[in-house]
Amino acid sequence: MLRLQDKVAVITGGASGIGRATAKEFIREGAKVVVADINIEGAQQTVSELAELGGTSIAVRVDCASYDSVEALVHQTIDQFGKIDVMFNNAGVENQPSNVLEMSIEEYERTVAINQHGVFYGIKAAGNAMKDTGGVIINTASVYGFIADRKQFPYHASKGAVVMMTKAAALDLAKYNIRVTAIAPGLIDTNIVSEWKENTEVWGQIEKGQMRRRAGKAEEVAKVVAFLASDDASFVNAHVTFVDDGAAAFKR
Ligand SMILES: NC(=O)c1ccc[n+]([C@@H]2O[C@H](COP(=O)([O-])OP(=O)(O)OC[C@H]3O[C@@H](n4cnc5c(N)ncnc54)[C@H](O)[C@@H]3O)[C@@H](O)[C@H]2O)c1
C-alpha cells in the first residue's frame, strides 16, 4: 500500500525546487496533486513531469499573498477532486539583501505577505475545508526561522512566524483531527539560491560552511514532507522538522 494512496494534496510553490520534488514524491506515493504557483507555466511543466510518472495532477495559478486567491485554490481543488487531505504551504521568496536600517518598507511587506501571510491563508482556507474529514497541513519554515544571518531581516521575520504559526494552528485544529507540522530546510540547491550559485567561489564557500560540505537536494526534503503527510507520522504534530544536515546545530 502506497503511503498517500487516494489522498488529495495541494502544494504551493509547486513550479520548482522543493515544491516540484515533493509533487513527484507525492505522486509516487499514490496521491493526486494540485500544483499551485504564481508561475503557472512552471506549474504546468511540473504537471507534465508528473504525467510522465503516471500521476493525476492539475496546475492552478495562485498568489499566496492574497487570501481570495488561496481560498479559490482550495475551492478549485474540491471542485476537481472532491476533498483536500494535505496542504503543503511551501511557496516562498528571499528578500533583496539589505541592512535592516536601509530595508525598504515595500520589500519587508512583500516578503512577509508571501512567506508569512501566505502560510496563514493556506492554514485558514485548507483548515476550513478539512474540518469534517481531518487532514494534514505542512508549512515550509527554514533554519532562518531559528538562526540569523545578515541582511535577511524580512525573511527571518516571516520564517520565525511560520514556526510559531505551526504550533498555534496545531493547537486550534487538533479538535478537527488536523495535524499541523513544518519543515525547516537548510541550504537546498534550488532556484531561490540561484543568485549565490552564479558566483562559483561564493557558492563553494557557502557549501564549505555546511556540516558535510554540500547543499541538500530538493528530493531530500521531499522525502521528509511525504513522511509528514502520511499516516506514518500520525503522532507527529506541532513540530518543526529540520532538514538541514545539522546546519542549525553548530556555530560557524
Ligand atoms: N532552497 C533553500 O535553501 C531553502 C532553505 C530554507 C527554506 N526554503 C523555503 O523552501 C520553500 C520553497 O523554496 P525553493 O527552495 O523550492 O525555491 P524555488 O524558488 O525553487 O521555489 C519557490 C516557489 O514559490 C513560488 N512563489 C513565489 N511567490 C509566490 C506567490 N506569491 N504565490 C505562489 N507561489 C509563489 C515561486 O514561483 C517558486 O516556484 C520556500 O518557502 C523557501 O523559503 C528554501
Care to describe what's here?
With 252 residues, the protein is α/β, with parallel strands linked by helices. The protein has a single domain, classed as NAD(P)-binding Rossmann-like Domain (Rossmann fold). It is built from 8 helices and 7 strands; from the N terminus they run E-H-E-H-E-H-E-H-E-H-E-H-H-H-E. It has a 7-stranded parallel β-sheet, with helices on both faces. Helix 1 packs across helix 8, helix 3 packs parallel to helix 4 and helix 4 packs parallel to helix 5. The termini are far apart. The relative contact order is 0.15. The mean pLDDT is 97. Bound molecules: nicotinamide-adenine-dinucleotide (NAD). Nicotinamide-adenine-dinucleotide binds next to helix 1.
Question: Would you spell out the secondary-structure blueprint of this structure?
Answer:
Blueprint: E1 8-12, H1 17-28, E2 32-37, H2 40-52, E3 57-61, H3 67-81, E4 86-89, H4 105-130, E5 135-140, H5 153-173, E6 178-185, H6 194-198, H7 200-208, H8 218-229, E7 240-243
Parallel strand pairs: 1-2, 1-4, 2-3, 4-5, 5-6, 6-7
Helix pairs in contact: 1-2, 1-8, 3-4, 4-5
The site of nicotinamide-adenine-dinucleotide has 29 residues, from helix 1.
